[in-house]
Every structure is written in C-alpha cells, then in structure tokens.
Write a structure and sequence with these properties.
Strand order of the largest sheet: 1-2-3-4
Largest sheet: 4 strands, mixed
Order of helices and strands: HEEEEHHHH
Radius of gyration: 32 Å
Helix content: 25-40%
Strand content: 15-25%
Number of strands: 4
C-alpha cells in the first residue's frame, strides 16, 4: 500500500479526513484539521507514523517501507488491528482478584495524566437524596399547619379542649 492507496482506503472506511495527515491526501476544501491528529511522513529514507498534539509532532513508530507505515496508520485510524492476545492464567487471576488495585491504579494514572495537562480533576458529583414524596391522597398535608400554629389543632397543642 502506498500513501495514495491509503487515502482511498481511509475515505472508503469513512474515517473523517480531519483526523489524519497524509502526504498528497488533502481533505475537502475548507475542512479544518483537528489539532490532534495522526500523521504519516517520510523522514530520511524511513516512514514515520506519529501524532500531532498542540502543534508538536511525536513519532510513534518508524518503518523501513511505505507499505508497513500505511498499514499501521490505517489500523490505528480504523481499529482494524490484530485481535487482542488471550490473557495468560496469571493475568486472568490478577484481573479476577485485584479489582480494587486495578481501579486504584487507574485513578492514579488519570490523576497523573490530568496533572500533566495541568487540569484539576473534575469533582465526582455526590448522588442527591431523593425528595420524600407526599401522598397525593392526604389533603391535610397539602394545606400546611392547622390554624393556631400548633400541631393537632387549637392554641394548646392538644386535640382535647381543657
């Protein structure tokens, strides 16, 4: 595969053209490219697949030929990569019995990533308690307290006159 065929294949796969940058593969006129996109370029006789983030190009992989580089970029953009390798028995055991540790490590990785981008983590919303529902069949509840201010009627607070 060459870069021209890669462009055709990405169009056929309906990958938005703003998500990648390939030589001689312009997107539709006037279409802005995403600030973060994957790219393919030739560098000193090698082919590089990389990511452009905030104007900085970072090479992810280098290839000796255009075909392998194009196939790698296509797989990254379409998710048509190799199937995942099956878990080893040790990996399966760890996943089954270390869910708390896995969650803790994931939260730590998220905190580090957010810190690296200098964004504070978003607070997790506390679940709001459900308001108590009043019975629609009890008309006294809808009327508020009885006259006289005391529960049960009258100024004495009791239901029996004194």
């Amino acid at each position: 595969m060459d870069s021209r065929r890669l462009c055709e294949a990405l169009r056929e796969a309906r990958v938005p053209p703003g998500l990648y940058e390939v030589p001689d593969c312009p997107g539709p006129p006037g279409l802005p490219r995403s600030e973060e996109r994957l790219y393919l370029e030739e560098q000193a006789g090698e082919w590089a697949v990389g990511v452009m983030e905030r104007g900085v190009r970072t090479v992810l992989e280098r290839f000796p030929d255009e075909d392998r580089a194009c196939r790698s970029l296509y797989a990254r953009l379409t998710g048509a990569g190799p199937p995942p390798a099956p878990l080893t028995p040790d990996e399966a055991e760890m996943l089954l019995h270390d869910s708390d540790g896995i969650q803790r490590r994931a939260r730590e990785q998220l905190a580090r990533a957010l810190h690296a981008t200098r964004r504070p983590p978003e607070p997790q919303p506390e679940p709001e308690p459900e308001p108590e529902r009043e019975s629609e069949s009890d008309p006294e509840r809808d009327q508020g307290p009885p006259p006289g201010g005391a529960p049960g009627g009258g100024a004495h607070g009791g239901g029996v006159p004194g």
